[in-house]
Every structure is written in structure tokens, then in C-alpha cells.
Amino acid sequence: xxxxxxIPAFNEEASLGGVLAEIAExxxxxxxxxxxxxxxxxxGVARNAGVACVRLPFNxxxxxxxxxxxxxxxxxxxGTVVIVDADGQxxxxxxxxxxxxxxxxxxxxxxxxxxxxxxxxxxGGTRRRAMRILNRLxxxxxxxxxxxxxxxxxxxxxxxxxxxxREYPVEYLADTVEVIVxxxxxxxxxxxxxxxxxxxxxxxxxxxxxxxxxxxxxxxVGIAGxxxxxxxxxxxx
Amino acid sequence: MxxxxxITLSVVALGITFWVVRLxxxxxxxxxxxxxxxxxxxxxxxxxxxxxxxxxxxxxLGVNYPPALLFSLSSLLLLGIVIHYSWELSRLESxxxxxxxxxxxxxxxLDDAERADDGEDES
Lengths: 237, 123
Description:
The complex is a heterodimer of chains A (about 240) and B (about 120).
Chain A: E1 2-9, H1 13-24, E2 29-35, H2 42-48, E3 52-55, H3 61-75, E4 78-83, H4 95-103, E5 108-112, H5 125-142, E6 154-157, H6 158-167, H7 174-185, E7 190-194, H8 209-229
Parallel strand pairs in A: 1-2, 1-4, 2-3, 5-7
Antiparallel strand pairs in A: 4-6, 5-6
Helix pairs in contact in A: 1-2, 3-6, 5-7, 7-8
Chain B: H1 3-25, H2 31-49, H3 52-61, H4 66-122
């Protein structure tokens, strides 16, 4: 069984090529690009690089794209999966550390910008405060001391891939934060691995204040629902 | 408002809130729709416990008959929800259309590929 790198991409033709070139240098890693309904040449970049590309007919959001990628990974008998952003923010040099954490027995390894020995990464005021609240939310619901709960740079073991391929919460924020809660409650081991994130190579960051509040409330309702039902095995889908 | 009415309204509002959150946990209801309903049911509890809020708000806004304020507010919220549903429905409709087209095109490509295969077998 091999390791699969799931690369969700929405209009990332500018940066995807560079990311794929760096990923190609990692031994034994099979990349798959999930083109999330892009209107630019994203799928073409993947094809020219000779990389498998799953094209969604319309935009499903990062969560939807990741879930599609996880299902592709299962279809291709992946042992572990690592999720890497197409915008160049995630440094492929850190992929090895994430996969090593899974090999060492963890089920979900989260690349953290803010872990003790991670590189420098600057974020603005509102975002920083929001991130801190989300970390605290994860800590109080699961006991896991997250320092970067919204990081999408993560690796997962086969059992977690199987679980999330069914249960991945596709909403923004839920696709990162709620996943930690679900995976922990399902009894899997979650750890953080320090990584250095880079400035985005292209595209625009996706944080607006009103949407942030809406997404946060939606996340709370989602997590509250899971806690109320006392879901452990993921329930029905 | 009588104590019985206050208690009944609070219990109903809390019950619906609880039920909606439970449905989210069971994955029967997407959290964004739950949020929509919680915006309505959650404020009902303080209103049931302190009905004077309605009178004061009515007075503040210069409404002669304060309960009318409550009715118009709830009609507005419901109208908002229905419009939101039309919006979601339109989005869903265009997406199913796209999916149908996508499958038809995939079938056509599959037919082409199979025909190409047959051609190779014969030669």
C-alpha cells in the first residue's frame, strides 16, 4: 500500500505546477489533484505533469474536494493519505515528517504553524483571535491541545481515511476543526507536527469577518449536535 | 401572559432547539439550516420568560399594539427563510442539470472508447 497526496485545487493554475514538481521528488508518494470546478487551466496543469486529476463538475468547497480525494485514495488502495494545498502554502518538505508521524502510530497528524518549534508565520488580528478560539474549542471538547486547529496540512492513517471518506464534514471550518473532534471521539490518536508554512504562491485568502462569524456559529451547532448524540462510530451517513 | 403560557412556550422553544441540534448530530440536517431555525427558536425562550421585552420594544419603536411587532417580525423571518429556500432550490436545480449533462457526456466518451476498442480487436 502506498501513500497518496490529495491536492484540492480551485483555480490554482499559477501555483499548482510548482507544488506538483516538488511533490514528484518525494519517493513513493502518489499525487492526485482534485479540481474543484475550476474555470482556469488547473486540470490541464495536472494532466501536463502526468498526475491523476479528478474533476468535479462544480465547486464543492475544500471539504468536498478533500472527501473526493479520500475516496480516490481508497479506490487506489492507499495506506496513508496526506493533504497538501495547491496554493503553495504547504511546504512539501514537511510531508515526510507528517507521514513519519503516521508510520509511528498516529492516526491523524496535523501540520501546525504555531507548534513550539515551527517556523515563523504571521497572521492578522481577527484571524489570530479566531484561530485561538477554535484551538480552545478543540481543547475543551476533546482534551487535545491543538495549536493550529484550522491547518489543512495533515496526514492520516488508513482507518481514518476510511472513516472520513464516509463522514467528512464538508463545510468550511468544519472540514478542519470538526474533523479533529470527530476523529478524537472515534478513538483515534491525533498529534501535531511542527511545519513552516509559506506565503500563498497565488490565489486569495478566504477569510471575511461576517462569513467567519457565520461559519463559527455553524461549526458550534455541528459540534454540539455530535456531542448531544454521543456519536462515536460516525452514525449513519 | 399567564405562567402556564410562559412555561409552555419556553418548553416548546427549548424542545425544538434540542431537536434541531439532535438532527444535526444524526446528520439528518445540515448545520447551516439548523442555524436558520435556531435564530428563531433561541430568542423565543427569553421572550417567554420576560414577555415585557415585547412591550418595551414595541413602545421604543412606536408600535401601538406591541404583539403586532412580534407577528410582523416572525412573518419577516419566515419570509426570509422561504426566499433562502428558493435560492437553494435554484442552485440545486442547476446542479442536477449539470450532473445530468455530465453523465450524458461521460456515456458518450465511454461509447467512443468502446467503439475504438472494438475497432482494434477486429484489425
